Amino acid sequence: MSQNATTASAPAPAPVILTGDRPTGPLHLGHFVGSLRNRVAYQDEYRQFVMLADAQALTDNMDDTEKVHRNVVEVALDYLAVGIDPTRSTIFIQSQVPELAELTFYYLNLVTVARLERNPTVKTEIALRGFERDIPAGFLTYPASQASDISAFKATLVPVGEDQIPMIEQCNEIVRRFNRIAKRDILVECKALVPEIGRLPGIDGKAKMSKSLGNTINLGDSADQIRAAVKQVYTDPLHLKVSDPGHVEGNVAFLYLDAFDTDKAALEEMKAHYTRGGLGDSIVKKRLDLVLQEMLEPIRTRREEFAKDKGQVMQMLKEGTMKAREVAAGTVDEVRRALGLSYF
Amino acid sequence: MSQNATTASAPAPAPVILTGDRPTGPLHLGHFVGSLRNRVAYQDEYRQFVMLADAQALTDNMDDTEKVHRNVVEVALDYLAVGIDPTRSTIFIQSQVPELAELTFYYLNLVTVARLERNPTVKTEIALRGFERDIPAGFLTYPASQASDISAFKATLVPVGEDQIPMIEQCNEIVRRFNRIAKRDILVECKALVPEIGRLPGIDGKAKMSKSLGNTINLGDSADQIRAAVKQVYTDPLHLKVSDPGHVEGNVAFLYLDAFDTDKAALEEMKAHYTRGGLGDSIVKKRLDLVLQEMLEPIRTRREEFAKDKGQVMQMLKEGTMKAREVAAGTVDEVRRALGLSYF
């Protein structure tokens, strides 16, 4: 609620979550830890919208639109496999809700170029992609698009990493600016929901597990692929002999066990043993392989089940998209009226 | 057609015109000379779309959305009054064709921020409005929106002033870039249609007749208002006595007569007389008043007729908007398919 809210006495709206992914490749353990696992929990507590952000993915994939198209159903399969339930979450395709583009169009008038250029998340992403002065306008302005995605569903909670908090702030600035123009609180401010467990490193020890870095374990990976990946997992480069004391900090095998091993007592014991020396990497990795295989096997099996009938998955997406459109269309209608863009 | 057109052997499409106005105030003689008069002629030769650009008007009128809303029907009345015929031209309201916002959203990925910042028209307009670094993003990106308006209707001709030619070039760049991605010519390049008669100066002699400068004669002005305005028309400040030789160049009274007096012989005679001395401003202005009254009286009368039933005017706009939507939706469908954004 903005400080000058005129409806301060109205009851707080039920929490609504907006979350999603850019369908540019298979989802991996990093997604699982950072968001997917939480979504499965959230869907019981909140009204949850899960967006396949194909239109947003195009902002830097105009040279490979086919990749984005192909991955929509793949990511949907990942969702279903981990237990996101279309009867409890609304899963939809961004581009098929054109109301989101319409809202973005209006929000572009509510944010200055200077403000967009100051957005730390945008700055970082621009540097990461090496755009420099050749930033596509759609990339610079994507905070307006995100504000549209969030506010169209009047989402109050947006699960994001620490680094995405400036996007949430920018969204709320747009919301407040719009409500000031509308002279009433039509749009709703949201809060970042930062997961307790931070980012999962890649198997190579790099800070981020990322498809483009080739250091992922994907949710759909076969048992053999998982085994091969675990073998490559970065441990302690100074731990040369089994008898040497090893380091647990920055050791990806232990970081993964921290994230996924439910037997915390055994894990603590293993860490102590590794630290004082006498525990080989192969034992640690054997445990990691076991934990990951046990966790990913049912996910992979469900994924394969759902993948047998992609038509049904598309039907599920169609129904979710229709539901999402209805909500977004309601917001667009309010926005248009407030801007005097209602005539007939 | 782009140089790498793959359909070079296909017949050229029928000429389509996209034109329109920002509904921010009543239309005036400047509009009449620069565009309205031509549109009445074009509608017999071409398929003509006439857009009430309310959404674009918001880019710098977010502080007065009511003004934009109110002027939609007023500008539509001006159109009808001058003879733009809804059975021969498709008159529509931009914001009610959300497909235009959707196209804009995609086109933002096809133009860089640097390119938008180099656009001379945008540069000039930014300077004019004193935006400096606080340009609304929607203002910087409005060439993408214009490209959307033009290409949605596959317009091949766009009537614009000399100063708007960079906008047309930018539109064509977006069209070519899109067609390259689509690997076929889905969108159509357009040409600027620059009117033979240039810009009409204001009654005060300033280069541009403009509502914001308060130097207009509006199409709906009463006979008294026209008479009062003609009295104020800037002539020759050195022509103090009737017997003095007068200057025709830069003399707004004669510039207006050049634009509107159909009796060219009498006008030439009057100019010669004025130049050699012995012809008072009052005689010239009397002629100008007569010419303008004769020209504007039937326009005003028709305007008043149509204004009696604004409901009917809105109905006409609704029908035009539906027709426009159908065409734009067809283009959006092609664009979506080409970008892989088609699923169900």
From TrEMBL, chains A, B:
<keyword id="KW-0030">Aminoacyl-tRNA synthetase</keyword>
<dbReference type="InterPro" id="IPR002305">
    <property type="entry name" value="aa-tRNA-synth_Ic"/>
</dbReference>
<keyword id="KW-0547">Nucleotide-binding</keyword>
<keyword id="KW-0648">Protein biosynthesis</keyword>
<dbReference type="InterPro" id="IPR014729">
    <property type="entry name" value="Rossmann-like_a/b/a_fold"/>
</dbReference>
<dbReference type="InterPro" id="IPR002306">
    <property type="entry name" value="Trp-tRNA-ligase"/>
</dbReference>
<dbReference type="InterPro" id="IPR050203">
    <property type="entry name" value="Trp-tRNA_synthetase"/>
</dbReference>
<dbReference type="GO" id="GO:0004830">
    <property type="term" value="F:tryptophan-tRNA ligase activity"/>
</dbReference>
<protein>
    <recommendedName>
        <fullName>Tryptophan--tRNA ligase</fullName>
        <ecNumber>6.1.1.2</ecNumber>
    </recommendedName>
</protein>
<keyword id="KW-0067">ATP-binding</keyword>
<keyword id="KW-0436">Ligase</keyword>
<dbReference type="InterPro" id="IPR001412">
    <property type="entry name" value="aa-tRNA-synth_I_CS"/>
</dbReference>
<comment type="similarity">
    <text>Belongs to the class-I aminoacyl-tRNA synthetase family.</text>
</comment>
<dbReference type="Pfam" id="PF00579">
    <property type="entry name" value="tRNA-synt_1b"/>
</dbReference>
